[in-house]
Amino acid sequence: MPLSDRAFRALARAEPGVVVALLRAVAPEVLPPRAAADVDDVMPTQLDALPPPLDIDWAARVAARDIVHVECQGYRDPEFSARLLWYHLHLALRHRPRRVRTVALWLLEPPPAQQPHVLAHDDITVRVTSVVLPRVPVTTLLADPATACFAAVGAAAGLDDATLCARVVAALQAGAATYYQRHMAVIAAAMAGRYETMVAAMEHAQMEPVIIEDLVKFGEDRGEARGEARGEARGQLAVLTRLFGRRLGRVLTAAEVATLQQRLGTEGVERLSDVVLELDAAALAAWLSAP
């Protein structure tokens, strides 16, 4: 599972109130007024009554008779619409007579064919709500500290990246953001090409960074999601260059980046991840300069 979806799932399951706040901001029609989410009634989300098992992102009982189901999508997948339909049907069967409301939450611009409000298969028709976060104004997502972790992927509304990321970090600090929220904020920034700026904003505000291994793996996922081997390699190299530079406390030279690229090809991303985690700055510099 790509890290964009994994980050959302971890956040949603640990802090369902964040998802409720996001839906109130971007899709209020799916929530009854003043309703709170009761995840105990429908969790865990592995629906294995009918084979094969289906592992959905998040679902909760809302008010007396509604089930709200959210699927987050951070990569292009031609099977997403079909999965969304079957997830909805499984929930409807499992929790009848409650009404199921399904939301497709996009972290990137989806293909036009994958953002319908109605899904159909033969005689089965399902209504869904599609929310494309890159079209949602950043100001809407920053209005509530609970939704600030999604703001970096929103529409900038005239803000430059540095200002946008600084406002996101300020909102995260004001809301005493958890690890899951900080993690989601970095992933959201990376989805919008704002990763470097977001990390710099967090460092400037002395905010604890997310786990390094996750950032390296995210570079892999971004390449895979594009379906391009070169895109994957570029994603890995960009993240590793940043991590090596942070470890050394300086920007890598062109020769060091070239060495890193060559060793990425020969030794692989897992070995280079171990190197940057295990060596101190002096040993890391020596490793980069060795032939």
Note down, in words, how this protein is organized.
The structure is a single chain. This protein is an alpha/beta fold and about 290 residues long. About 50% of the residues lie in helices and about 15% in strands. It has twelve helices and eight strands. It has helices at about 5-15, 15-25, 80-95, 140, 160-175, 180-190, 195-205, 210-225, 230-250, 255-265, 270-280, 280-290; strands at about 35-40, 45, 55, 60, 65-75, 100-105, 120, 125-130. The strands form two sheets. It has a six-stranded mixed sheet. α1 (about 5-15) packs across α2 (about 15-25) and α9 (about 230-250) packs across α10. The model is unreliable at about 45-55 and about 225-230 (pLDDT under 50).
Please give a quick description of this structure:
The chain has 291 residues and is of the alpha/beta class.
Which key terms come to mind for this protein?
291 residues, alpha/beta, six-stranded mixed beta sheet, two-stranded antiparallel ribbon, 12 helices, 8 strands, 14% strand
Topology:
Elements: H1 3-14, H2 16-26, E1 37-38, E2 46-47, E3 54-55, E4 58-62, E5 66-73, H3 80-95, E6 99-106, E7 118-121, E8 124-132, H4 138-142, H5 161-174, H6 179-191, H7 195-204, H8 212-226, H9 229-248, H10 254-267, H11 269-278, H12 281-289
Parallel strand pairs: 5-6, 6-8
Antiparallel strand pairs: 1-4, 2-3, 4-5, 7-8
